[in-house]
Amino acid sequence: MGQMLNFDNVELFYDHVYALKGVSIDLNEGETVALIGANGAGKSSILRAITGLRKIKSGRIDFMGERLDGTAPADIVRKGIAMVPEGRRVFPFMSVKDNLLMGAFTRSDKADIARTLDSILTRFPRLKERYNQQAGTLSGGEQQMMVIGRALMAKPRLLLLDEPSLGIAPKLVQDIARAIVAISRDEKVSVLLVEQNSRMALSISNRAYALSTGSVVLSGESKALMNDDRIKAAYLGGE
Ligand code: ATP
């Protein structure tokens, strides 16, 4: 299992807000890695640094052995990194079909795009049923499935998920968790999962990093972290 993504001592600022204070994380091919932590811990900033939406101040980011920071966002997608943003960000007046096709904007082989689309509709039959429906009329859970599908349309090697369980009915959180596990297994895609639902995140990831105010405070195998008293107290409601 080779290393896929490496963060070495990354610092990131928003004006005067010191959002990432020298963060080092890594992710290997085939792994699902979770980032957990409270509001404002810096989880989304890590994703913004990877996708190139925000420049880092110092440190470096490598992907598949090549330097990633400084690369333009569209080229980052071409390198095989696709993002499922927080809050779902659908194009509400476009159909499910057109939302999904937007995800393939870096690809040109029509037959190959059609194959990917087919596999996504097979995975998410709900989207097939609602294929021509305006995306804004989908339920929250359906929209989440759709934006995961949209990211998969880029045929990524690394999928970034920003709080997929946010605002989703508890029953559907299970479905989304199962979908993430199935996708990583079937599509051979690695996953970096940002979640405030630490229990869900730890239950479906291989390893995790706990963040607090811009620093990694704990990391390790997810199974071990789930039984760690510090994690239980701070992230699992003290159970
Ligand atoms: P959440 O779960 O609430 O999204 P997070 O762990 O993802 O939290 P970040 O969004 O990475 O946290 O934010 C890290 C810090 O940077 C916070 O203190 C936040 O207020 C600050 N921050 C984020 N975006 C901006 C911005 N555009 N301008 C100024 N400060 C920002």
UniProtKB/TrEMBL annotation:
Query: Which PROSITE patterns does the entry link to?
Result: ABC_TRANSPORTER_1 (PS00211), ABC_TRANSPORTER_2 (PS50893)
Keyword Glycoprotein assigned to the entry: answer is no
Read off the Gene3D superfamilies from this record: P-loop containing nucleotide triphosphate hydrolases (3.40.50.300)
A Pfam family name for this chain? ABC_tran
A single GO molecular function, which one?
ATP binding
Q: Does the keyword Transport apply?
A: yes
Using the record's annotation, list all stretches that form the ABC transporter domain.
Answer: 5-238
Keywords tagged on the record: Amino-acid transport, ATP-binding, Nucleotide-binding, Transport
In Swiss-Prot or TrEMBL terms, this protein is called ABC transporter ATP-binding protein
Organism, scientific name: Paragemmobacter amnigenus
Q: Please name the taxonomic classification of the source.
A: Bacteria, Pseudomonadati, Pseudomonadota, Alphaproteobacteria, Rhodobacterales
